[in-house]
Amino acid sequence: MYTLCIVGILGNLIIIAANFRKWKTLNSFLIGDKILSSLATSRSLHICVIYVGYISPLYNTWVSKDLYAMSSILVLTTFLHSTNLWFATVLCVFYCVKITSYSWKFFIFLKTKISTLVPWFLLTSLLMSVLFSLPLGWIFKKIEIQHLTNASSEDFPLTKSVKYEKSRNMLLLFLTGSGPPFLLFVAAITLLLHSLWMHIRRMRSSGSGVECPNLEIHFSAVKSMSLFLVLQTMYLLSKTMYFAGTVEERTYEFWITAILTCSPPTVHSLYIISSNRDLRNSCISMFHVFTCSAQG
């Protein structure tokens, strides 16, 4: 898991650095790069906090013994989790609006205003994440205090009831905060995949042939969006298992859940780098500079 976290952090930092270099060269920040950089920043921070959250209880560090520290980590983890979902949704909505050709009035409005609306979408995502994460930390601290009080009085049935209430309330709040961005993500990606697939069918029926470069680009977009959907679903399911309280520490299920939580953002970031020529070239040049400086 340590290696997976390091790879995920480095992959997202490469995306941020490449977009920063592009911004310095062009003297302007493209909307797509702005969303991607926001998502990469949130993902790299999230992976760091996930690592601390999973590792601290195993080594009995002061963080795992301090109620306020654990509450703060939970709030920060939940905030970054929420920003990941919302930023991924904004990215998918952006691609959906830019690529699709639906004639609905709302889509036409978004197409003409998307450059202006994206910064507001990102700001709204941050505000929604704050509103979602703070109550979760408060519930955790409140119920954990009750749990410690009942444990000291050796009232085991009541302790078990408090633990169940904690898992139920946290899971309910987690699903309430995660549901809207994920449903919007699924809706946007479904519209995008439907539009791409219909375009592919029209190109095939017109006799363009499978070897047409434009058709290959659309096939690549379909595969990319499908992978994005699968990874987001896997990520949300692993986080749901964690908040449901069904996974005990120091078990195989615990580590599987941890790996499944870190894998989707890491895999998707690496896929973005490998499928984007500018990011791929930036990654190669950064690696070359690093190896030269290490040797010299």
Count of helix runs: 9
Oligomer: single chain
* Main beta-sheet strand count, sense and barrel state: none
CATH topology (fold) name: Rhopdopsin 7-helix transmembrane proteins
What is the percentage of strand-forming residues?
Answer: under 5%
CATH architectural type: Up-down Bundle
What would CATH call the homologous superfamily? Answer: Rhodopsin 7-helix transmembrane proteins
What does the overall shape look like?
globular
* Count of folded domains: 1
Instruction: Give the C-level CATH assignment.
Output: Mainly Alpha
Structural class by helix and strand composition = mainly alpha
User: What level of helicity do the residues show?
Assistant: over 70%
Mean pLDDT: 79
Question: Secondary-structure map with pairings?
Answer:
Layout: H1 2-26, H2 31-59, H3 62-65, H4 67-99, H5 105-152, H6 156-205, H7 213-244, H8 252-275, H9 277-295
Helix pairs in contact: 1-2, 1-8, 1-9, 2-4, 2-8, 4-5, 4-6, 5-6, 6-7, 7-8, 8-9
Main location: membrane
Organism: Engystomops pustulosus
Membrane topology: Multi-pass membrane protein
Structure in a nutshell:
With 296 residues, the protein is mainly alpha-helical. The chain is 89% helix and 0% strand. The chain is built from 9 helices and no strands.
